[in-house]
């Protein structure tokens, strides 16, 4: 599965700890991240991470574009609800696209624990079916 990992600055330590704790699960998947978050996760876990631009420079939108193309299966986005972000519209747009395409999105540690365990248990395997049928519609297979 394609998994995106994103965290605002004050939540980066939490997401890095989370990624390290669940490395045995994450290493079975393809990881994507916004720029700074991705760097931190790569350094801490030594897992490969496809890095996009930093969030304020368009990284959230790049991940949103992958959602719109049905190329992202789950998002871990540790948002900071107490700090104004210069790119708040991008953040809102990313969350909105998750809702448009029914992509599982965890915005805090509590939900992230459930999502990562669901990922491991196969609760997201329906995504393979969705992707297969959309590939067939697009003539990709
Ligand atoms: O701002 C972000 C998400 O909105 C995260 O971007 P960085 O990972 O580059 O800090």
From TrEMBL:
This is Methylglyoxal synthase. One of its GO terms (cellular component) is cytosol. GO terms for biological process: methylglyoxal biosynthetic process. One of its GO terms (molecular function) is methylglyoxal synthase activity. Signal peptide: none annotated. Residues 1-141 form the MGS-like domain. Catalyzes the formation of methylglyoxal from dihydroxyacetone phosphate. Pfam families: MGS. Substrate binds at residues 8, 12, 34-37, 54-55, 87. Belongs to the methylglyoxal synthase family. PANTHER family: METHYLGLYOXAL SYNTHASE (PTHR30492:SF0).
